[in-house]
Design brief:
With 202 residues, this protein is mainly beta. The model has no long low-confidence stretch (mean pLDDT 89). Helices cover 13% and strands 41% of the residues. It folds into two domains: 94 residues, Jelly Rolls, CATH 2.60.120; 71 residues, Translation Initiation Factor IF3 (2-Layer Sandwich), CATH 3.30.110. The longest helix is centred in the middle third of the chain and has 13 residues. The protein has three helices and 13 strands; from the N terminus they run αββββββββββαβαββ. Strands 1-2-9-4-7 form a five-stranded antiparallel beta sheet, with no helix packed on it.
Length: 202
């Protein structure tokens, strides 16, 4: 059993919408989405059916380009695979529930044989290609905690990080996309190490 006080979880950010992940399971995700007036959640799609309940505020919700206004106390749902986006008319908090089979088979990304300078950019590229709710399993020979911090910094509120195996010889982590890209992210670029003090051309 899990219990949440939604009023205590309402928190806004002047730069971006704030998703608070309450539950993130393969067949059931629940997120409190806090959106400041004027902010937008870019168009995206999920593999699950999505229900959106307006805890507070007033938003304009778009499904495949068709608008619908949603105010405090109202709820709507959309079918799996439908493209949707959100525009906040007022400061708004939305309880978003995604249910369904989602991603049945998770791919593995084994970093153990990858050169060190390529590892983080490879993980970011894999993550950026995920749909909301999808995940992959990261395999490594040590705890990639610096990668976790970097992802939280460069992809704020988007990453769900779950240890499956924690060493000592192998680490397996499920990395799941909890929220869509915000639209301003830059890809991480791999730079080969310098040789004999000479910086390679970029």
């Amino acid at each position: 059993m899990q219990k949440f006080n939604l009023n205590e979880l309402i928190q806004f950010d002047e730069k971006s919408f704030v998703p608070k992940v309450l539950t993130n399971q393969p067949q059931f995700r629940m997120v409190l989405l806090n959106v400041r007036a004027g902010q937008k959640v870019p168009e995206h799609a999920t593999k699950e059916t999505v229900t959106v309940y307006a805890v507070s505020g007033h938003i304009k919700f778009y499904e495949n380009g068709t608008p619908a206004e949603l105010r405090t106390g109202e709820v709507l749902w959309i079918e799996a695979g439908a493209s949707h986006s959100v525009e906040a008319i007022e400061d708004s908090s939305l309880l978003v529930v995604a249910t369904g089979k989602g991603n049945a088979a998770e791919a593995e990304l084994d970093l153990r044989s990858i050169p060190h300078f390529q590892r983080h950019p490879l993980v970011f590229a894999k993550f950026d290609a995920l749909a909301v709710g999808d995940s992959f399993i990261l395999v490594n020979d040590h705890d990639p905690f610096p990668l976790h911090r970097q992802m939280d910094t460069l992809r704020p509120y988007q990453v769900n990080w779950e240890y499956i195996t924690q060493g000592p010889d192998i680490f397996r982590i499920r990395i799941r996309r909890a929220a869509p890209l915000q639209g301003s992210e830059e890809p991480l670029v791999a730079h080969p190490p310098t040789v004999s003090g000479i910086q390679p051309a970029r």
